[in-house]
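Researcher: Good morning. I'm working through a list of sequences from a screen, and I'd like to move beyond sequence-only analysis. For each chain I'm collecting a predicted structure so we can compare shapes side by side. This is the next one on the list. No need for commentary yet; just the structure.
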Amino acid sequence: MSRSLKITLWIAVLCVAVLSGLHFAGQPTAVSERSYKLAEVKRGELTLSVSATGTLSPLITVQVGSQVSGTIESVHADFNSQVTKGEVIAQIEPSLFEAKVAQERANFDSAEADQEKAWVAVKDALRQLERARRLFERKMVAESDVDAAQFSYDSATVEHKLKKAAVAQAKAALQQAEVNLAHTTIYAPIDGVVLSRDVDVGQTVAASLQAPTLFTIAKNLSRMQIETNVDEAFIGMIKQGQTVSFTVFAYPGQTFEGELAQIRLNPKVESEVVLYNCIVHVDNAELKLKPGMTATVTVEVDSRENVLKIPNAALRYFPDLPAQRLQALKKQLDVKKDEALIWVPADGDVRALKVSLGLSSDRETEISAAGLEEGVEVIVADKPASPLKRKTGVRLF
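Model: Good morning. Structure tokens for this chain:
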């Protein structure tokens, strides 16, 4: 075969290939067969609720500390002990504080004696001043003698005031020493149960910087509270006084009730989410609930009966249609009436159905539309499109 003939054949093959490519480029891209996940429109009850998790704790918890430093001599309460207000629950070794009281009492007695001595000096200076004045009136002493007697009286008066202040200072020091001695005995500040004991006999507590915690006492475990955080998106749905239901892991299958007592205004920001602390009061007469338990709280906001409802996934589905077609459907929706589109299968294709939305929970949404009945199948999911397919249109929701 000649070289010119080979070149001619190669050119012909190349032309055929180019023409074939141009032909297929003008055809739609092949896509995998579309499959749908269907769900039925159901009729029944629909409940809207807000859920959160929190921790159970006593309504009132008091941390009992020590205001003085020393060695624990005795402990009279343990974990779970029932205590009454004023009951002795611990004793710090008091000998150093007793010695301090004795020292300050001696100082006080000495200061009182000095005050009495100064008062005697005042009375003596006053007598000397009065005698000097009488003698001066008789021209028997010089005026300078009267001035000297006046100076002595004034000095004695000031000295008495100083001694009087020293007595007050010594009395205050004595009172402080007596208070410190009294603080070596630790009393229960409230009636309740001991949740924790953080000291043992022989342990030294140091209260130089802050009062160390010796015991934690809960006032009454028959009334408890749940501290939970609610997202700002749902905080407007709840209000004080609402009935709250909750569960704990310790009693699976059992539901407890409480009352939303407080919505605190101080916000918390966690992971860029604004949360509000909510307090739920709980009746724990049977003492089943323990401090620290994790509670899953549910607040029922609204409820409807005998309504048509669909899974929320049906509202998130949209078909792959041209943008102009989707925009035209979108313009038909009345936002003020909270209208939306759902899609139903129709002769191998899909058809849009305009519905009005009602109450919505985390799984289902109430809908209504002319001619819509229970049992109608709606599309809730669609097989992911092939990566080879060119997507058109815009998403409505």
